[in-house]
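Open question from group meeting: does this chain pack into something compact, or does most of it stay loose? Before anyone orders reagents, we agreed to write out a predicted structure and look at it together. Recording both the input and the output here so the notebook holds the full record.
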Amino acid sequence: MNQEIADLTAEQSVQFPNFSVLLSSTRRGARLARLLAQAQLRRWGLPTEPANLLVAELAANAITHGRVPGRDFRLTLHLIGDTLRIEVTDTRGDRLPAPQQPASDAESGRGLLLVAALADRWGVADRPPAGSSNPDRGPDHRGRTDLPDGYPRP
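Structure tokens returned:
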């Protein structure tokens, strides 16, 4: 029975390649997210752009707007059919990220507009905190972007 479960799990991971890593909510963690995603996409034989830019923007948002001191963010890449799904999960539960219309001379505030322009689909979802028994903590946020169908498969 256990061998059957192990075989099924191995088969699923081959059918739907994925990569997931927990990173510190710091600039260094955001940079590492981009570098690790780039390396994983190369391992899968996929182009790194525009996914690299999407990971950079989502990780930057996680450490800037979704940061809770002492808590990490998670980067997950899923390859499902011809679609690459990029998920960045932050730990801030009191507000959902939303695109802004920055002033024309603003130096920041365009990250989610860029994500919306580059991704085929994108969204934000609440999820219950993993293993948390603290109802006051609130939900974590999971941002997701899907690159267009037809994204080259490994």
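Observations to bring back to the group:
DSSP finds four helices and five strands in the chain.
The chain has a mean pLDDT of 77.
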